[in-house]
């Protein structure tokens, strides 16, 4: 596998995922480097992760996990985190989700869109959770929706003009990566970002790997070592 270096000719990015902590499993390392270089990065989450902690009711977990996401984002230089408030665990791909993401794309007008894989399996064979698949695919389709004034025309009445300025879509955790970014220098920031999800991490139990151990495994895969000690890889789609 030969990967190209991730492009740098963009200034603003929007990262769209399903749950608090999804971005912290590797992508935050890339985000830390981008914000340090002066790029603007914001997050959009479809849910507040309210079904993610077995010992905490959804009513308690939603605000707690949302705050942990804000805290984790701050560790890597992100100060805008928005939520769509779909229901955790039962997010469905469809027009409401596409419309909500397209509307947000029109609001923030990014050049780079970062999403999670919508494949059925992660690299290594682990099953990809249903919300991840629904949000990843909807975000991909929302790129076109955001740029077409005749798709969801009611958004025009909300003052949301079409935005066709997304140059790249990066699919994180793809089984078919095309590009890489050496994140060795930002690894510790990524660890701090995942550690900010304290309640969620505690809920995983004492036998679950620590944030540092987990990110060492995710970003230190042997087959990527030729590109750096710690590497973030993604499938990149050039839309221009």
From TrEMBL:
SUPFAM superfamilies in UniProt: LmbE-like
Residues making up the signal peptide according to the UniProt record: none
Keyword terms: Zinc
Coiled coil regions in record: none
A Gene Ontology biological process term: glycoside metabolic process
Pfam families, A to Z: PIG-L
One GO MF term: hydrolase activity, acting on carbon-nitrogen (but not peptide) bonds, in linear amides
InterPro entries (alphabetical): GlcNAc_PI_deacetylase-related, LmbE-like_dom_sf
Top-rank taxon: Bacteria
Keyword flag NADP: no
Name by which UniProt lists this protein: PIG-L family deacetylase
Organism annotation: Ornithinimicrobium ciconiae
Classification lineage: Bacteria, Bacillati, Actinomycetota, Actinomycetes, Micrococcales
């Amino acid at each position: 596998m030969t990967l190209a270096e991730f492009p740098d000719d963009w200034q603003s990015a929007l990262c769209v995922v399903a749950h608090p902590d999804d971005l912290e499993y590797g992508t935050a390392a890339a985000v830390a480097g981008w914000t340090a270089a002066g790029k603007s990065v914001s997050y959009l989450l479809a849910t507040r992760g309210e079904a993610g902690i077995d010992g905490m009711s959804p009513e308690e977990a939603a605000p707690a996990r949302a705050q942990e996401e804000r805290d984790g984002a701050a560790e890597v230089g992100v100060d805008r985190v928005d939520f769509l408030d779909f229901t955790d665990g039962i997010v469905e791909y469809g027009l409401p989700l596409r419309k909500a993401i397209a509307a947000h794309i029109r609001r923030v007008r990014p050049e780079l869109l970062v999403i999670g894989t919508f494949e059925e399996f992660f690299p290594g064979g682990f099953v990809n959770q249903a919300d991840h698949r629904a949000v990843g695919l909807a975000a991909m389709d929302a790129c076109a929706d955001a740029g077409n004034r005749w798709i969801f025309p009611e958004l025009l009445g909300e003052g949301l003009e079409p935005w066709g300025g997304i140059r790249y879509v990066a699919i994180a955790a793809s089984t078919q990566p095309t590009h890489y970014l050496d994140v060795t220098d930002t690894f510790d920031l990524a660890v701090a970002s995942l550690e900010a999800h304290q309640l969620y991490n505690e809920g995983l139990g004492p036998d679950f790997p620590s944030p540092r151990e987990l990110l060492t495994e995710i970003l230190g895969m042997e087959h990527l070592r030729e590109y750096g000690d710690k590497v973030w890889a993604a499938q990149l789609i050039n839309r221009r």
